[in-house]
Amino acid sequence: MIAQWVVHVLVLLLFPPLLLGVIGTTKAWFAGRKGPPLLQLYFDVWKLLHKEAVYSRTTTWIFRAGPIVSLASLLSAGLVLPLTSGSAPLSFGGDVIAFAYLLGLGRYFTMAAALDTGSSFEGMGASREAAFSALAEPALLVALAIVCVPASTVSFADAFAALPWSSWGAAHPEILIAVVVIFLVLLAENSRIPVDDPATHLELTMIHEVMVLDHSGPDFAFILYGSAVKIFLFSALLVHLIIPVSPDGGWLGILVVCAGGVAIAVAIGVVESGMARLRLVRVPQFLIGASVLGAIGIFVVLLRAGR
Amino acid sequence: MTLWPFLLALGIHLTGGILALLLRRSNRVALATGTVACVVASVIGLVAAGHLLLVGGAAEMQASWHVPVGQLRVGVDALSAFFLLCIYLVSGLAAVYGAGYLGGHAHERTLAPVIFFFVLLVAGMTVVALARDGVLFLVAWEVMSLSGYFLVTFEHEREDVRRAGMVYLIASHIGVVFLFILFTIFARHGGDFSFAALASAGPLSSSLANACFLLALVGFGSKAGFWLLHTWLPEAHPAAPSHVSATMSGVMIKMGIYGLLRALTFLGTPPAWWGITLIVVGALSGVLGVLHALAQHDLKRLLAYHSVENIGIITLGIGLGLLGQSAANPTVAILGYSGAILHTLNHGLFKGLLFQGAGSVLFATGTKAIDSLGGLSRKMPVTALTFLVASVAICGLPPLNGFVSEWLIYVAAFHGGALSGATLVAALAVIPTLALIGGLAAACFVKAYGIIFLGEPRTKACEPAHDPPRSMRGPMLVGAVLCLAIGLWPQAALQIVARPAQVLVGTTAGADAMLGLLLPITRVALVLVGLAAVLTLLRWGLLRRREVAVGSTWGCGYEAPTARMQYTAASFAEPILDPFEATLHRPVHENPVRGYFPEEAHYERHPKDVVGDRVLVPAARRLIAALARIQIIQHGRVQLYLVYILVTVIVLLVWQLSGGA
Questions:
Q1: Which residues in chain B have their CB less than 8 angstroms from residue A116's CB?
Q2: B53 in a domain, yes or no?
Q3: Contact at 8 Å (CB) between B80 and B130?
Q4: What percent of chain B clears pLDDT 90, i.e. is strictly above it?
Q5: Phi and psi of A238, rounded to 5°?
Q6: What is the pLDDT of residues B305-322, one digit of tens each?
């Protein structure tokens, strides 16, 4: 048991930055250029941790608390979500909701920290983040309900254990719908194209990046690292829905989650290379569409249950 | 024995109120008398209610003298005790806060009336919770409503305050009409007005029970502020002094919830459509309440709309409880009711805290307009901190108390998968609804907290700002600590909630399992706090020997930003509201920018209440126009009116003699 949790924590702490490298490499390959090294984010985080910090004189302790609360809540969410095995160190009946709301807590403090700078760019970013996350939240919970309700559980571990592995592709379209919805939420929550462009260079067009303009040094390291953790959490959730991870974990569990994470990172890279960003006014439609898709999934669940 | 402490507390409240009136010459003495009475009564009541909730028990007694029509019958059970706990807790904190708050008005008016009516409001609410007789209940209900009116019109020299008071008065009296009918039906069924007779008379016929449910829904719903019946809230709360808003929003509107729950205990096993109805009402109140809140730029109006939202969340929980009961699924029932009841307490705590924070801001700056404020967290650190705690709590985020109650409602909804048919759809619909409400609430409170307390001051109003005196800071800190305590140690809160939920469900099954369910929340909360502490230490260690510079905020190279360039509450809310524009009513008055050399231009947008302005006012106009036709019989001549009375009496006599009912 102890060894299993140690592996869980080590994977959670060490693996995520690789995913952003994979996305970058994929995009570089599509664009026909030589991208940054795969391990670039590790270097960046290491470098930033050793830098000095500059704070705006407008800011208060909220600005400094933002990155810390955000990363702490992401890591807590990582301890609630099963990664390399069928359960997590903090698994309990109801952890599905704790997961979603821990992400919400981190977002709340990121937005508050952005408003703390008094910059209208950052206020704009916070406002957009608030708008889109409010719409992404129902989509995420509907998708989780699709997975949990048939097993009448509110826990990731039980829901994953009850997934119908042998035949979901053919006979369980609702799981497929849940996967698609969570992937759409992943794109929105992690500020990827088509919702947000992490590589944009114009403050006016940014969403997430503009909220963290004023952070520097270790604070910015926490933010970059946190964004990698967030992608990893969503991809691990997807992996658990697509591929069975043995309840006991072991080497195979690590391999499945890590390889699955890389595959999803490649998929994100493909999406980012293949399409342009949506206009901001279209993003709500994208997210409401995801919720509607999730609702269809719920109805499939109900039809299947014959109720 | 169980009942006496509550009657003692009631006596202390009333004595304090009357003494304050007698000592009205000196504002200071009257204020001290009223406050001490409230605190002493609250402490006695809290101990008694807490004891009853933890140990269990119930009591009932009847005074040996009769009042006209009804009896003086009071009693207490777990459900009453829980609401009494909320009343004593919120009103006690509000009274201490109010002592400081009213102190600021001491030089301009006599305070004795507001002290007296505050105490009377609290006394009225406690009697509502204690009443075991329909007539006594309605009398106490009216005392509560009317003292609320006198508190709302505290600053009665202002036109808008008088108008708000009138809106409140009309709304609460429209509501009480339905309650008169409800209790008359109850009395006919039970033989007399006492609840005991009603309980022993057996279940009502199903059509009568349905009628009673609808009457209770409208009658109690107008007090609680269900959507469509909520229009008085955003008028009355901003007009009242802040400690009164805290009490009204924190507990008075909850008496509507109490009344609804109490009425449900008499109506037998609920049919599924009651639960579905409540879920629809709760979803409408929750989503539309929070959207209207987002559109507001007056802090206290914003908070008033959040009361509508939170009443919606409570109603979702009750709806799930009813669904569970109708499907004989005690797990869903217990979880739903517990979530609803716990959210009642939680909302009392954090909404009380938020109104107190709003009061402190108003006290310090003289304005409630969010867009005139900014950067207050430097000048008012305690207010800013407590407001932050309350706003994270109201968004239902861990590790605070709002998360625990919303979590219970979520878990109830997920367990709704065991239901069938329409009830199943209704239960599952709660999940995305709560998620949407949570996301929008977070947006709204990031806006409120961020624009008021962070950034740079937007106007001169912020210059003299400072934290309020100790008597106002104390209750705010206590409230914040309680929010955190329930969040970190939810089992304790659940023990308080378990018995009232059992009163509603009528079974103890499932309660113990629930206690176990909540244990891990403490672990998650502690891990979260621990991780934050580790990261803080890590950053401290990293930055300890390095240079930490202070500069101006990055403005793309622009180095001379002014406070007016900051994002405002209006601009923050705009993209969030955009997809929901159809549900709002925000008339625009503008003189747009035209031509290559634009001249004077302006833009105004006023958030209005969609129900009030689009439904109620036009409907009332039509009604008045229709009724104008009857005015022919109204001449203003007394002789003619006497003839009308005579004719009516003769008609009634003839009807009676000819064998009418």
A1: 450, 454-455
A2: no
A3: yes
A4: 73
A5: -65, -45
A6: 999 999 999 999 999 999
Q: Measured between alpha carbons, how far is A220 from A173 in angstroms, rounded to an integer?
A: 41
Q: With an 8 Å Cβ cutoff, are A55 and B549 in contact? A: yes
And the tokens for B442? 């977070």
What is the average per-residue pLDDT within B526-530?
96
Between CA B346 and CA B359 the distance in angstroms is 20
Helix (H) or strand (E) holding B65: strand B59-66
Tell me whether residue B56 is in a domain.
no
Find chain B residues with C-beta within 8 A of A8's C-beta: none
Q: What is the pLDDT of residue A293?
A: 96
Which residues does chain A have within 8 Å of residue B449's beta carbon, measured at their own beta carbons?
112
Q: pLDDT class for B67, splitting at 50, 70, 90?
A: low
The interface predicted TM-score (ipTM) is 0.96
User: Omega of the bond prior to A37 within 30 degrees of 0, cis?
Assistant: no
What is the rounded CA–CA span in Å between residue B348 and residue B83? 10
Q: Is residue B11 one of the residues assigned to a domain?
A: no
Q: What distance in Å separates the CA atoms of residue B588 and residue B570, rounded to the nearest whole number?
A: 13
CB B467 within 8 A of CB B321: no
Q: Which residues pair with B606 in a beta bridge?
A: none
User: Cα dist. A231→A12, A103, A189 in Å?
Assistant: 11, 12, 9
Ramachandran quadrant class, B34 (left: phi over 0; alpha: psi -120 to 50; beta: rest): alpha
- Are the C-beta atoms of B209 and B268 separated by less than 8 Å? yes
Chain A nearest CA to B531, separation (Å): 5
pLDDT at B515: 65
Query: If DSSP codes are grouped into helix, strand and coil, which group holds residue A279?
Result: coil
User: Has residue B653 been placed in a domain?
Assistant: yes
pLDDT-derived band at B509 (thresholds 50, 70, 90) equals low
For residue B562, the tally of other CB atoms under 10 A from its CB is 9
Enumerate the H helices of B131-232 as residue ranges. 134-152, 159-190, 195-200, 206-224
Which has the closest alpha carbon to B220: B195, B194, B249, B255? B255
Query: Are B57 and B14 contacting, i.e. CB atoms less than 8 angstroms apart?
Result: no
Helix (H) or strand (E) holding B120, with range, is: helix B112-130
Find out whether B525 and A98 touch, Cβ atoms under 8 Å: no
The pLDDT value recorded for residue B418 is: 83
What type of residue is A258? C
Helices and strands in chain B: count of H runs, count of E runs: 25, 5
Q: How far is A38 from chain B (nearest CA, A)?
A: 26
pLDDT at B183: 95
CB pairs under 8 A between A and B: 276
Which residue of B443, B527, B578 is in closest CB contact with A90? B527
Contact list in B for residue A141 (CB cut-off 8 A) is 431-432, 434-435
CB contact under 8 A, A294 and B432: yes
Which domain, by its residues, includes A283?
Answer: 2-305
Q: Do A56 and B579 touch (CB under 8 A)?
A: no
Q: Which residues pair with A56 in a beta bridge?
A: B551
- Tokens 């109620």 belong to B616
3-state secondary structure at position A54? strand
Query: Given this model, what pLDDT does residue B330 score?
Result: 87
How many domains are contained in chain B?
A: 1
Q: What is the pLDDT of residues B197-210, one digit of tens each?
A: 998 888 889 999 99
Q: Are B475 and B94 in contact (CB under 8 A)?
A: yes
Query: CA A34, CA A11: separation in Å to the nearest integer?
Result: 28
Q: Which of B316, B522, B524, B543 to mutate to test the interface with A (most CBs of A within 10 A)?
A: B524
Confidence of residue B491 (pLDDT cuts 50, 70, 90): confident
* Number of domain units in chain A: 1
Phi, psi values for residue B371, rounded to 5°: -75, -5
Phi then psi for residue B503, to 5 deg, are: -60, -40
Structural domain range at position B645: 612-657
Q: What is the reported pLDDT for B273?
A: 95
